[in-house]
């Protein structure tokens, strides 16, 4: 029941993007805003950084 390699790589890349949006920009105080913009760009209503600094859309 393993994922195909392409699907796995896409999932890993998506996780990295979510993490980087909150982690890297939190020092500038714009983590949540950047996360919301990231989610809106992906056609979601918005988003926020959770306690583990992962962007949740």
TrEMBL record:
GO terms for biological process: defense response to Gram-positive bacterium; humoral immune response; innate immune response. Keywords: Antibiotic, Antimicrobial, Defensin, Disulfide bond, Immunity, Innate immunity, Secreted, Signal. Residues 19-57 form the Invertebrate defensins family profile domain. SUPFAM superfamilies: Scorpion toxin-like. It is found in: Secreted. The keyword Cell membrane does not apply. One of its GO terms (cellular component) is extracellular space. Its main location: secreted. Pfam families: Defensin_2. This is Defensin.
């Amino acid at each position: 029941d393993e994922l195909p390699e392409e699907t796995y790589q896409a999932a890993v890349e998506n996780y990295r993007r979510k993490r980087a949006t909150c982690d890297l920009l939190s020092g500038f105080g714009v983590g949540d805003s950047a996360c919301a913009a990231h989610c809106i760009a992906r056609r979601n209503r918005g988003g926020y950084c959770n306690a583990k600094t992962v962007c949740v859309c």
